[in-house]
Design brief:
The structure is a homodimer of 337-residue chains. Chain A has 337 residues and is an alpha/beta fold. Helix content of chain A is 42%, strand content 17%. Chain A is built from 13 helices and twelve strands. In chain A, strands 2-1-3-4-5-11 form a six-stranded parallel sheet, with helices on both faces. In chain A, strands 7-6-8-9-10-12 form a six-stranded mixed sheet, with helices on both faces. Chain A is elongated and about 85 Å long. In chain A, 49% of the residues are buried. At the A-B interface, helix 4, helix 5, strand 2, helix 10 and helix 11 of A face helix 4, helix 5, strand 2, helix 10 and helix 11 of B. Chain B binds a DNA duplex (16 and 16 nucleotides) through helix 2 and helix 4.
DNA sequence: ATGAAAGCGCTAACAA
DNA sequence: TTGTTAGCGCTTTCAT
């Protein structure tokens, strides 16, 4: 049923090559010939078979983006930016999610979930450097996020320590001195939460403000209910912070919900700063102050890095590319105007 | 560099066909032969080239999902469900967004954005039935959402009129009689907002409650700020509803933010019901009562319909498949427990 | 049970 | 400027 180049060629009474030339806008075709072929194309409703083209050229025009969870607005917004950045280069994006599970991340990184891609952008949570060792390197990989891996793959991130320090500095500037960090992870040292905790510690130390352990609060996950549970646990244990710096906006939002339930007023009783700048943070009853990573820049850097590997300019790889961030100050630290 | 069947065949000293048989688990292969070939496969690190396989079989194993906006959590959550549903059948999902723009939707529906797909799930906003006429039918299409099209494509939806009626009935049951509808569209009769408006009207009529025009509020888009603007405009014009039924949760959340700013208490002064049941609605200062469409069912129905078209069982098409919904009652109508 | 060979639709040398 | 042909890697008759 589908119309192929051969059919068009037969119809126009020319060779396959000529039709191919027209389809690909090869310059050296006489206008008359071009018109004749085009007519046949239109009459037959010919559309090139991209699978065949891809087999021939060894490229598919598809890159994959694998994030932990699309339900996390940060990743949804990031995915939007990646789709746009890819579209600028006429690439489409295959989306996958790993649920933040290591075995899923390994599968994705080794291309077992989607094996028709030119490149992969992976935002890992639990993946270990060793998981990347066994990787066959035919598909270029770019890593996203906070984790540092000593591997020959480019890595896109913001300066997490500096960002966390900016957040804590802002809270100190508002007169807060008992600033809880919501987002510690007990299981491993270099998990995503780590660098932000380092920033929290460094900034407090620089200001000469104590950083007692009971203000470092572990969370079980990255979602609103994890933040709510952590906040409730903290308050139940009798600790009373005057500010909270959360690993991400979702955790901050969960924490704010609990503060609200307990009758604590944000920011007067407890100020809150999040991380990610998701749209949701702008429209709560109390809008959320947050660290805003430049998601479009992250997307552009990731796609750019991938395309560079694809064009294979003797890419060294292993670079860390840094995107900007800024602190967006809203009601959860400033109060209502 | 990549290893092909031929390489493996040479290594194992057998024919290509035999290797292919092993790779595809063809039953009639002697164990000895299978072991020998497998050894060569492992040694060479052979991985099948899916592009070639696809060219041969005419299938790619990829379906596309095109939604208006991934930044809308409803669509992000739906996308998650579709990816999972597709994965169950070993399909991967190419994600695209249309920004709700008709020309983008037309492009996507005609396969111009991604032409290597076996099927397409499209959630249209502005697309018109006529846009689907010129479609070459080689790629099966399933439509999602409220719009009804008289076309030979399956359509997945919930009963929007019944859902809207349930929402309004709930508000009436809470003693509300001036229920504003936030989400009318002025531009066209059969836009997405229409059926829910019909439900609003029907339920009010059934209860003998007046439905004055000034309670039907147009919105400019589908996002939080559109809801905020609409709510502010309504209040500024002096209209004072005792409840709001919003086209979707984002609009409801924007409206609640404005009510909060104006010192109106939800639900005591104004009760609010949304539509979509996005996770965000559960964690605001006032949790949101909402109509919850069964997203997993929608995803399963859509993928199922596509696969049925693919296996080409003389599919008639043009059916409307209906998923369930339920009303989730929360603080924005019940108050705080 | 295994092998030989054709061909999916396309692009790119090379030839004319 | 246009045509001929090989071949991308795989599956699949058809032989053996």
């Amino acid at each position: 049923m589908p119309v192929s180049l051969k059919d068009v060629a037969a119809r126009a009474g020319v060779s396959i090559k000529t039709v191919s030339n027209v389809v690909n806008n090869y310059p050296h075709v006489t206008p008359a010939m071009r018109a004749r072929v085009q007519e046949a194309i239109d009459e037959l409703g010919y559309r090139p078979n991209l699978t065949a083209r891809h087999l021939r050229k060894g490229r598919t025009g598809i890159i994959a983006l694998a994030v932990p969870e699309l339900g996390n607005p940060y990743f949804a917004e990031l995915a939007t930016a990646v789709i746009d950045a890819a579209a600028e280069h006429e690439f489409t994006v295959l989306l996958d999610h790993t649920r933040g599970r290591r075995e899923q991340e390994v599968l994705v990184s080794q291309g077992f979930r989607a094996r028709v891609i030119d490149g992969l952008i992976l935002s890992p949570l639990e993946l270990e450097a060793e998981d990347l060792q066994g990787r066959s390197d035919d598909v270029p990989l770019v890593l996203l996020g906070e984790r540092e891996y000593d591997t020959p793959h480019d890595h896109i991130a913001i300066d997490n320590v500096a960002a966390a320090r900016a957040a804590v500095r802002h809270l100190l500037g508002r007169g807060r001195t008992r600033i809880a960090y919501l987002g510690a992870r007990t299981d491993s040292a270099n998990r995503p939460a780590h660098l932000r905790l380092v920033g929290w510690r460094e900034e407090l130390a620089a200001a000469g403000v104590p950083a007692p352990d009971d203000l470092v609060v572990p969370v079980g996950g990255w979602d609103r209910d994890d933040g709510a549970r952590a906040m409730a646990g903290l308050l139940d244990s009798g600790v009373r912070p005057d500010a909270v710096f959360a690993l991400n906006d979702l955790i901050a939002i969960g924490a704010m919900r609990v503060l609200h339930e307990r009758g604590l007023r944000v920011p007067w009783d407890v100020a809150v700063v999040g991380f990610d700048d998701i749209a949701e943070g702008r429209f709560g009853a109390v809008s959320l102050t947050t660290v805003s990573p430049d998601k479009r820049a992250i997307a552009r850097l990731a796609v750019g890095s991938l395309l560079r590997s694809l064009s294979g300019r003797g890419d060294p790889g292993g670079r860390t590319l840094t995107a900007e961030f800024r602190l967006v100050e809203r009601e959860s630290t400033l109060g209502r105007r």
